Amino acid sequence: MSICPQPRLENAGMDAWLVRLFDEIDERNMGWITALVRDCERAFGEQLVDVVPSYTTVLVQFDPLQLDNVEARRLLQQLLTELTPDAEDEAAPVKELPVWYHSSVGPDMARLERHTGLSTDRLIELHSGHCYRVFALGFAPGFAFMGTLPAQLELPRLDSPRPRVPAGSVAIAGRQTAAYPKTSPGGWNLLGRTPAKLFDLHRTGFSLLQVGDRVRFVPVSRAEFERLGGDSTPMKES
Question: Membrane spanning segments where (predicted)?
């Protein structure tokens, strides 16, 4: 069941407004957020510079040479009075990310086993058995924050981030999951690796995953992972 937003407009400078639709993170927020993004793109047209959706908000940046701050606020207020959520279409395609779950590329699987008391097979079953929603993009280009992770898998971030996390690493932290689009530092718990190219400058929109997408992780063997172009080089701890 959809939840009803209580929108507030917060000034974000002479050329932007932050629309705060909700105060709490919830998968059900996304229908409202994606609908507002769509409506802003339509209503602002060429006056729109950027629109950035996130967990509970939408940042709307406009061209101040074409539209002043007061007019932009008035337009947003009108959109909000008419806003209706995108229907959650359970028949809509789910983006699947193949994952090789293994301790050599997911060194925190053992930590998760100790924390939960569950077997590796059960942990993989839980992580791959849920359809996640993309809440936000950030940290690095193509890095999608997804939720909500099953409660049994909730695990805090590492006390000290790793200086180097390989591209494609599939990870969890708190009640969220993600995959690293490129090699970078990171403090999330690593469970495996995906061969999917998460960020590509030659792809329309660049990021494979977009806010509002439904995503499922699909376990694959090492052989299939490598066939799909994955790098099975073991994780080296520094």
Answer: none
